[in-house]
Amino acid sequence: MTRLFAGTPFDRPPTCDRCGRLESECDCGPPPVELIPPEKQTAKLTLEKRKRGKVVTVVRGLPAVGNDLPQLLSELKTACGAGGSLQDEQLELQGDQLTAVTKALRGKGFRIG
Predict the structure, then answer these.
(1) How far is CA 33 from CA 39, 69, 72, in A?
(2) CATH number of 38-112
(3) Per residue in 24-75, pLDDT tens?
(4) Residue 111, pLDDT score
(5) What is the SS3 string spanning the chain?
(6) Cα 109-84-108 angle, rounded to 5 deg
(7) Domain boundaries in the chain?
(8) pTM of the entire structure?
């Protein structure tokens, strides 16, 4: 791997911000992800109609930073017994799942708006 200033006085190997050692010698691991408490977040639920009349339950308003959206989607799919996907920062569940999603999110502490 060549660095931008290799062979110049500005050539410094990358170091860890936390321990100050070389990145190749650092054993700090990745920084912990700080999750936003569910009580401080409001999920917006809507029903949308897609092609050929298919209905989808959409959960919006939960930022990707501060949440584990793939894990939350997995839990919601299990609670609803339906398939779903993660599109940008919104969760989509197949079918009219408003009551099941509302119950599951409230059970985790999220506010519903």
Answers:
(1) 18, 13, 15
(2) 3.30.780.10
(3) 888 887 777 788 999 999 999 999 999 899 999 999 999 998 899 999 999 9
(4) 95
(5) CCCCCCCCCCCCCCECCCCCCECCCCCCCCCCCCCCCHHHCEEEEEEEECHHHCEEEEEECCCCCCCCHHHHHHHHHHHHCCCEEEECCEEEEECCCHHHHHHHHHHHCCEEC
(6) 10
(7) 1-32, 38-112
(8) 0.72
**CB contact at 8 A, 28 and 20:** no
* The residue type at 78: T
Contacts with 41 (C-beta within 8 Å, 6 or more apart), sequence order: 61, 62, 63, 67, 110, 111
Is residue 16 pLDDT above 60, yes or no?
Answer: yes
pLDDT tens digits along 70-90: 999 999 999 999 999 999 899
What length does the chain have? 113
Neighbours of 80 (CB within 10 A): 21
Quote the tokens at residue 95. 């079918």
